[in-house]
Amino acid sequence: YPRQHALQTKLSEFNQTMREAVMGSYTKVLFVRDPFQRLIAAYMQSVGGHRRSFSTFVQGVLDRGQHKASMEAKPLVSLCQPCLMQYDYVLMFGSLRQELGHLIERVGLPKDTHLPEFGDTQVQWAYVWLSEQLFSELSLKQKKQLAHFYREDLSAFQFSNSLLSD
Fold first, then answer.
1. Has residue 38 been placed in a domain?
2. How many domains does the chain have?
3. What is the pTM of this model?
């Protein structure tokens, strides 16, 4: 992009034409994770020294709403804006190793490119168990509110095994 814009660091500071020109020169990859699993991760990080229940944590997220939610709890659609940004690839947490291997091949990197070790597939069973346990702590009203809170994520991305999809 033109040198005169070199000091601008935020994409939002460009006009639409420049934004398209800049973004057209990159391979855009979006990493997504089931919103309920993201919520669990945010809860686990926030617990620290606090002894609050998952239900209380969820209620706090719901009470704050989407606009005041922490970055970890915000719906992905509001963070990555997939309707405005044309991503070349969307990779799902839970199968990163397989999907990154495919991405490396598609972008033309050498096939022997070393991938880091990913624990996502090994810990997936633990997330399933933990998700079910924590989901059972929520009231029916909270479950419905969460499904509504993350409705755009659930419709934009195919989280087929999400507890919120039911």
1. yes
2. 1
3. 0.75
Kindly list the distances between the CA atom of residue 128 and the CA atoms of 22, 40, 161, in Å, as whole numbers in the listed order.
Answer: 40, 11, 9
Structural domain harbouring 19? 11-164
Is residue 110 a part of any domain in this protein? yes
What's the rounded Cα separation, in Å, for the pair 118 and 96?
Answer: 7
In a domain, residue 62? The reply is yes
Q: What is the pLDDT of residue 1?
A: 44
Let me know if 54 is exposed, middle or buried by CB neighbors in 10 A (0-12, 13-18, 19+): buried
- Cross-strand pairs, 119: none
The two three-digit tokens of residue 114, written as one number: 């070393």
- Per-residue pLDDT tens over the stretch 64-114: 999 898 888 999 888 887 777 788 888 887 777 777 877 888 888 887 777
Terminal Cα distance for the chain, rounded: 45
- Identify whether 1 is part of a domain: no
